[in-house]
Write a structure and sequence with these properties.
By secondary structure, the protein is α/β, with parallel strands linked by helices. It has one domain: Rossmann fold (3-Layer(aba) Sandwich), CATH 3.40.50. It is about 50% helix and about 10% strand. It has a five-stranded parallel beta sheet with strand order 3-2-1-4-5, sandwiched between helices. The protein is globular, with a radius of gyration of 16 Å. About 35% of the residues are buried.
């Protein structure tokens, strides 16, 4: 019998997955989902070596935890850059929206009942925008968007990622966030 509630969870990186995964898959909690599968799609991450490092960290965790993850084969950094160039101050809206849309489309085509994202764990993301975009995509694709504010477990997620020995990056992912992070550090 097919699971009644299946969640496709977009994963930006393994450290941001730790707390949401712990909460959503916990046998002790009343899990809302019969099945949770991850989806790693992040063509915003730059450079490519950073993308591979984050992917490898996620594979390390998913292998250890027995957590199934779909890894997007296309790394289309050029599309990301084409869509944000000369609009750098609004790049995060494109970036989040694009990743949520790909997740919603895959959830629909793969017959998931829900989709969500680990971006909801980050204190650095615009949760109002993520929630609005998610519910708009719910209407467009007919797959329910699951919203939960995972920021409450921010410290716990950091500790879990350390316990698993996962790579912890020090910038969001795109070439612009890399520049901002390291230029602030020098100043």
């Amino acid at each position: 019998m097919e699971s009644e509630n299946k969640l496709l969870l977009h994963i930006c990186c393994s450290p941001c997955l730790m707390y949401p995964y712990h909460v959503l898959s916990s046998a002790s909690s009343d899990s809302k989902f019969d099945k949770i599968i991850g989806y790693f799609y992040n063509s915003n991450i730059h450079p490519y070596s950073e993308y591979l490092r984050r992917e490898e960290s996620l594979k390390k965790f998913s292998d250890t935890a027995g957590f199934k993850v779909i890894y997007e084969k296309d790394y289309d950094m050029e599309e990301f850059i084409r869509n944000v160039v000369f609009r750098e101050e609004n790049r995060c809206y494109y970036c989040v929206g694009n990743r949520l849309e790909k997740t919603a489309a895959l959830a629909k085509s793969s017959k998931f009942t829900h989709f969500s994202t680990t971006l909801l764990y980050s204190k650095h993301q615009d949760h109002d925008y993520i929630r609005e975009a998610g519910f708009n995509l719910q209407k467009k694709y007919g797959v329910k968007f699951y919203y939960e504010d995972f920021r409450r477990g921010y410290k716990e997620g950091i500790e879990l990622s350390r316990e698993y020995g996962l790579y912890r990056q020090n910038y969001c992912g795109c070439i612009y966030s890399e520049k901002e992070r390291f230029s602030r550090k020098q100043a």
